[in-house]
Amino acid sequence: MGCFSCNGTTVLEENTDNNFTKANDQPRPGKAKSSPRGSRKVLDVKNEDVTKRKQSNSETDGLDSSDISKDEKTSSTQAQTFTFNELAAATGNFRSDCFIGEGGFGKVYKGHLEKINQIVAIKQLDRNGLQGTKEFVVEVAMLSLVDHPNLVKLIGFCAERDQRLLVYEYMPLGSLDKHLHDLPPNRKRLDWNTRMKIAAGAARGLEYLHDKLKPPIIYRDLKCSNILLGEDYHPKLSDFGLAKVGPSGDKTHVSTRVMGTYGYCAPDYAMTGQLTFKSDIYSFGVVLLELITGRKAFDPTKDPKEQNLVAWARPLFRDRKKFSLMADPMLEGRYPVRGLYQVLAIAAMCVQEQPTMRPAIADVVTALSYLSSQQYDPSSRNIQNTCKNPHSSKIMTKSSEDISTGHRGPMEG
């Protein structure tokens, strides 16, 4: 879940310190007014974090609870507060056999909370990391106010002395990257139908942030490791510590310090620091390519020309005869040829270099919802046309020539 600058070097996950920082970036001052649903503990943490940032001249920026307004269309539940002792007991004092993962901001443990009689995931943030404290504030503020089937649910938190912990619903199948990359022999390979289901669900979660939430939110950290899978591979977006309120009115972008994950970060954002909703669309396109190809967004073990997934894919987009080369070998040819062409067209549009050429998330959702509804039968090697949708079919009609030249297709707004 760690973040690093998009100029090609890792800040947290690769143990380097070559962090991209714009000289004119300044930390955003803390707001005195309280959140419509924020708890006193959350606000105390925010004030403490602002003080630390001033002392260290840090350049963290993000979303705080007063940035989000709750209206009649937003259903939410108040996050519960837990004591550190309760969370320690839930994990057997954070035993190693309860450990399920680690990111740049802290470690995640599986536990059972007797207070609510529920299996949960508990993230213990790094007590020495200012970014971890900032992420804590942002995540509690945001997830306490949103509710969507494709966003992970925040159950509660602990802000006790120097301890910062977040309690989420437990997602039994883990993160998407664990099902695509470096698979152990006993792990089930994702079939075509499951991949399309995950893609459509993740797109709906992003659509909620962009189009349904008021004000809209730019996720800024969309990647396979932040897509968690529940029962029956139901996907949910997680880790919102880098989220930013999107531009409003006549503004076209938000100027901010460049943060994200190399391989997923939109080139326009990496070069200018101008964050837009289309920055998320680029990241989603990379995730879609990972689902199609089984490759990592960036893989230093490969030949230099193949390390960056988008750079590897772009020449192949120009030749329809090479589309089959982009399919994950783990699929063993079990995919609909037409469906492969259509989802590659969507991915190609999402990763266009020019942000204005990328589609709106609503169009992506429409197209992927249609594709995921077309259940592929491996025994017949055909798609069962159980849900004919002329509008979606039109959206996905884009020739390989359009993909390679960057011409605007019917999916692009």
**First-residue to last-residue Cα separation:** 31 Å
Order of helices and strands: HEHEEEHEEHEEEEEHEHHHHEEHH
Into how many domains do the coordinates divide? 2
CATH class of the largest domain: Mainly Alpha
Largest sheet: 6 strands, mixed
Number of strands: 14
Mean pLDDT: 78
Question: How do the strands and helices of this protein lay out in sequence?
Answer:
Blueprint (H helix, E strand, L loop, with lengths): L39 H17 L23 E2 L2 H7 L8 E5 L2 E8 L4 E8 L4 H14 L10 E7 L2 E7 L22 H21 L4 E2 L8 E3 L5 E3 L6 E2 L8 E2 L11 H6 L1 E2 L1 H17 L15 H9 L19 H14 L10 H13 L2 E2 L4 E2 L6 H6 L4 H6 L8
Parallel strand pairs: 1-5
Antiparallel strand pairs: 2-3, 3-4, 4-6, 5-6, 7-10, 8-9, 11-12, 13-14
Helix pairs in contact: 1-3, 4-6, 4-9, 6-8, 8-9
